[in-house]
Every structure is written in C-alpha cells, then in structure tokens.
Design goal:
The chain is α/β, with parallel strands linked by helices. The protein folds into four domains: 205 residues, Rossmann fold, CATH 3.40.50.300; 56 residues; 209 residues, Rossmann fold (3-Layer(aba) Sandwich); 74 residues, Helix Hairpins (Orthogonal Bundle). 45% of the residues lie in helices and 19% in strands. It is built from 19 helices and 18 strands. The strands form four sheets. The chain has a six-stranded mixed sheet with strand order 5-6-7-3-8-9, with helices on both faces. Strands 14-15-16-12-17-18 form a six-stranded mixed sheet, sandwiched between helices. The radius of gyration is 30 Å and the shape is globular. It starts with a strand and ends with a helix. Keywords: ATP-binding, Coiled coil, Nucleotide-binding. InterPro entries: AAA+_ATPase, ABC_tran_Xtn, ABC_transporter-like_ATP-bd, ABC_transporter-like_CS, ABCF_ATPase, P-loop_NTPase, Val-tRNA_synth_C_sf.
Length: 627
C-alpha cells in the first residue's frame, strides 16, 4: 500500500535550490536510508513529507487517512506530561482505527465497505495494532523507562527527553516512521534493541543516521540525496558504498577512454588540415573528418560525477612520544550518588594501543576519561594518574567546551594560526561567509568540526575522543575514520558507533554496573563473546552441584522457578501470536459478515490473553533483574 508519493518536489531556501525535482515513493514495508552530505536537505525533505513545510513547487500525494511521524530533534513537553502519557499518545490513533474497523465489520457484505475495511485492517496490522500493549512494555524496557512511568517528562535530561520522543514515535501508530538520527543518545545495547524492534514494524521506515552498522541492519534501499535530487540504490548502506565505488571506477575508465579517442581523432584532423589545400580529394576528406568529429563530440562521455569535496582530516605527529608507558593509573575509584561507577586498582595504556571504552549510558565512561585526564580526582586517597615523558594529550570533549562562545570562527582560529586561519577553516568545509559566525551560533556539526580542527593542530601523541562522531554526516565520519587509521599515536575512544570502533580499536574497556572489564580485542568481538557466555543453557539443572555450598538456597530456587515461568510465558506468547496471525490470514478470505463478527470476538479474546501474558512476563523479568 502506498503511503506517500512526491513528484518533482522543489524547495528553495533563500537563493539556494535545496531540492530540485525530488521523486520518491514510500510504501508499507519499505526500509529506506536517506543519505547525503550535511546541508543537502535530508531533514528538509522529511519535514516536507510530514507536512511541516510546504514545497516551493511539485506535489506531495498522501494516501487517505495515513499518518507519518517525524522524530523530533528537540522535543518539548508540557508541565503535566509524564513518561506514560507521552508514550501513550499514539494509542488514541490506534484505538480510533479499532473503532472504525468494528463499525465497518457490521456492513462487510457491501463490497465497497469490505475493501475499505480490508485497507484499514492492513494498516492496523502493519502499525502493530494487535501488539500495542506488548510494544508499550517493550519500549519501556528497551529505552530504560521501566518503573519511571509517572516521572514528569519536562524534568528529563536532554538525552532522556529525546529517547522518550523516540519511544513515543515507535508507539505512534504511524504508517511511516521518519527517523532523523534515532541512535543519538542511545548506547550500544539500546541501539541493538531498536534494530530488533524496527524489524517487527510493518509500516515504512525512512532513516537518516551516521551509524553505518545501524543503517545496514534496518534498511534495504538507499536514497542518495545529492544536488537537490534523489538516486535510489538497492541494498543496505554497505552495498550502496560498494556500488558507488564501482560506478565511479567505471565512469572514470569510460571517460579516460573517450579522452584518449578524442586525442587520436584530433591528431588525424590536424594532419588532414595541413593537407587540405593540396587537392580537392584532401579537402573532401577534411570536410568528412570534421563532420565525424562534430558528431563524436556531441556524443561525448560525461566526466565522472565528483562527490562534493569532503573535510581533509589529519592528525599529524611530528615527534612521537618515546615513552612506552603512555598513561598509567592506580586506585581509580568513583561513585555517584552512592552508586559505584568503577573501582580499578591499576590501569596501563602502552604506546600505539587503540582502546575502545564502551558501556551503557550513565555507566561512567566520561567520568573515567576525566579521572585519567586529571580533571576529576579519584575517590580513593591513593588514587593517582601518570603520563609518560614527552606524552602530549589531545582531548575531544563531547560537550565541545573550551571555546569562547562570543568569538567568531575566524577569531578563534586566528589565535591559533594567525593569517593561516582562513585557509584552515576552508579546508574543514567552512565557507568564507560562515567563518564570521559566533561560536555560540554554530550548528552541532559545525561545532564538532571546529573541535576536531583544533585537535588536529595540537600534535598530540595520545588522542582521547569522547563521542567524536556525534553530529557528523557519514562522509565526515568516514574521513575521520581514515585519519585515525593513519594516525601513528595512541588512541582512547568512546563511541556508540560500533562500526567505527571495530575499524579502529584493538582493545576494549567495558564499564557496566560498577564492573570494569579489559579485553584484548575490538568491541564487536568482545560483545559477541559476552552474549554467548550470558546465554542460558537449554536444560539447566535446578539441583545445586554442591549441597554444602554457602549460597543462599532460597534465592537460587526462586530464580530457577522464575526462569521456568518466563520460558513458559514466552512459549504461551508465541502460541497466541501464531493464533492471531492465523486468524488474520483467515480474515483476508471472503466470508459471511456473521463469520467476521465471530472472528472479531475471537481476536479480542486472544488479544486480551496476549496482553495478560505480556504483563506477567514483564513482572517476572523485573523480578529476575532484581535478583
């Protein structure tokens, strides 16, 4: 079923044609990645699709009754809004669909009404109407709002507020989800959960993200927005990059062959011009060659399409630190509000190591970095940190502090580079007119590029980067990745971009629930091994192996019974969902209206049982977590 269609869509921003003839169609089940440079119009196109903006020219066709939902970048909540009320806003839309389905079911003998019922039923099923309560419980748990339903939405932190907006979007009952950087403020575990949740959604998904692994997991086609127009590619983002590389290579080869042939023909033509005056025969030959040359140039092969110039990133290091022990810490302890973040007796970073620091949001990753940098003290009286002789540290702060907000870009760089400031800013994709913006007025992407530019000038032998890919487009993320791959110094990275970390890191530090783990491999391998170790055995033995052990038998017995009940509930939920699917398949067949009424009653009964099973499953899961 078609949701939305654009024809020759144009949008002008000032004197610039941001969109110039965009043709795009979204249907139920579509999984589309929208890619393009920062400023190419991706967010503008999404706002046009949902009706927040009006096009300068062209048409947008939305099917009757469909709803598109765009993820808010800066969500605002009222004083009465709670976590629960925000998440359940979309329930009214789903309930209205249920009421309309029930009203139409009384008149299904009419073919026209039957077709209306069938189309609405398809939408209802696609947006998860039958699993709305279960989806609500899943969002609470997956985005870590379980037990916080009555908290005021207005007092949430910026990252939590955006996570709540994401949860509301997932439960909105929309026919198309427009996800603008959905993984911002999500840690690796939440991102993995979101990938799984989206796979069960039946509507359309249009995603903008700088997280390449996420795009690979949730998209099946790529819409490349470039110079105001869309070009579609089959496959996920990695497939798109491979195809673009092959296209660029083919275009370059064809253009080189055409230039070579053009040079050969020009040589023949030049020789014919020298002989043309000698005889009528040579004059006729010259005329023929000129005509053929004109036709050849009319059929000229176009030069290869050059991508917009990207940022030139380098982290030069004229003199490497000679110290083998780059950074070392002892008794690194930190707690927050009575909760232990980490307790590390000894930590050593050696020359040339590339370390990824991972863990859930709030685990203490940035705090550990600040302790290592000496910006925060250890809670332990013997805590100390030492850097090796000659080691210079460059720190990328995710809050992008350290710059005077009142200065312009040029003034900021002039203090570092003098007259070379204009050239340096141009190399980092700051146009001349933008160089006179005050730092406080820079966008997130501009502030990130400014911080990286400053870092590249420091000749640091140890780079500590806290979320460096936030606010960067995919092209700049890839440029940063290449620069760090060629960087000869030592790296310590915090990021929720697993593809980025796996390319760069050879060692993993993991913070989780106050525990610190040091693993000698990239984080992807560590997380895979950890998930395998954490997987429950298929046939656990409830009897203790050692009857004389000092473990508390009551707790062991309680956990085992809870795990068995959870397994039983999961099997029951799977069976109920299968019955619902079978019922829905039967409903798609031509039946008497009395049969439809009976099936509607059966559907409501199964749905009630499913909600009850999910509610108990959530209770059991919480009890297991508490244990």
């Amino acid at each position: 079923m078609r949701i939305v269609l654009t024809e020759n869509l144009e949008y002008t921003l000032g004197a610039r044609d941001l969109l110039a003839g965009v043709n795009l169609e979204l249907r139920h089940g579509d999984r589309l990645a929208l890619v393009g440079a920062n400023g190419s119009g991706k967010t503008t196109l999404m706002r046009l699709l949902v009706g927040e903006l009006e096009p300068s020219a062209g048409r947008i066709y939305r099917s009757e009754g469909v709803h598109l939902e765009l993820l808010a970048q800066d969500p605002q909540y009222g004083p009465a809004d709670t976590v629960e009320s925000v998440l359940k806003r979309g329930f009214a839309r789903v309930q209205a669909m249920e009421a309309e389905l029930a009203r139409l079911e009384a008149h299904l003998a009419d073919p026209e009404i039957y077709h209306r019922w069938e189309a609405l039923h398809e939408r209802y099923q696609a947006v998860g109407g039958y699993q709305q309560r279960a989806r609500y419980e899943a969002v609470l748990k997956g985005l870590r709002f379980a037990g916080r339903e009555q908290e005021k939405a207005g007092v949430l932190s910026g990252g939590e507020a955006r996570r709540l907006a994401l949860g509301a979007l997932l439960l909105s009952g929309a026919d198309a989800l427009l996800l603008d950087e959905p993984t911002n403020h999500l840690d690796l575990e939440m991102t993995a959960w979101l990938e799984g949740f989206l796979q069960s959604y039946g509507g359309a998904i249009l995603t903008v993200s700088h997280d390449r692994r996420f795009l690979d997991q949730v998209t099946q086609r790529v819409a490349w927005l470039r110079r105001g127009q869309i070009r579609l590619y089959e496959g996920n983002y990695s497939a798109f990059r491979r195809e673009r590389a092959l296209q660029e290579e083919q275009e370059a080869r064809e253009y080189a062959n055409w230039l070579k042939e053009k040079e050969r023909r020009e040589g023949i033509l030049e020789q014919a011009q020298r002989w043309a005056h000698s005889s009528a025969k040579h004059a006729r030959r010259l005329h023929s060659l000129e005509a053929r040359m004109a036709q050849f140039e009319e059929e000229a092969v176009q030069p290869p399409e050059q991508d917009e110039p990207g940022v030139r990133i380098r982290f030069p290091l004229e003199k490497e630190a000679t110290a083998e022990r780059v950074l070392e810490g002892w008794e690194l302890h930190k707690s927050l509000g009575g909760r232990l973040l980490f307790q590390i007796p000894h930590l050593l970073v050696r020359k040339g190591e590339r370390i990824a620091l991972i863990g859930p949001n709030g685990a203490g990753k940035t705090t550990l970095l600040k302790v290592l940098l000496g910006l925060l003290p250890s809670d332990h009286p013997a805590g100390r940190v030492k850097t090796g002789p000659g080691v210079r540290i460059g720190y990328y702060d995710q809050k992008l502090s350290g710059f005077d907000p009142e200065l312009t870009l040029f003034e900021t760089l002039y203090r570092m580079l003098g007259e070379k400031a204009h050239a340096a800013l141009g190399g980092w994709m700051f146009p001349y007119e933008a160089q006179f913006k005050q730092v406080k007025h820079l966008s997130g992407g501009e502030r990130a590029r400014l911080a990286l530019l400053s870092l590249s000038l420091q000749q640091a032998s140890l780079l500590i980067l806290d979320e460096p890919t936030n606010h960067l487009d995919l092209k700049t993320v890839e440029a940063l990745e290449q620069a760090l791959l060629s960087y000869p110094g030592t790296l310590l990275l915090v990021s929720h971009d697993l593809a980025f970390l796996d390319q760069l890191a050879t060692r993993t530090w993991h913070l989780h629930n106050g525990q610190f783990t040091d693993y000698p491999a990239p984080p992807g391998e560590y997380l895979e091994r950890r998930s395998v170790r954490a997987a429950p055995e298929k046939s656990p033995d409830p009897k203790p192996q050692n009857p004389t052990a000092t473990a508390r038998p009551g707790r062991v017995k309680g956990r085992w019974h809870l795990e068995r009940e959870k397994e039983r509930l999961e099997a029951e939920i799977t069976g109920l969902e299968a019955q619902l699917q079978a019922l829905l398949a039967q409903a798609n067949q031509p039946l008497h209206h009395l049969e439809y009424a009976r099936m509607a009653e059966e559907q409501h009964r199964l749905q009630a049982q499913l909600e009850q099973a999910f509610a108990r499953w959530a209770e059991v899961s919480e009890q297991l977590e508490a244990l």
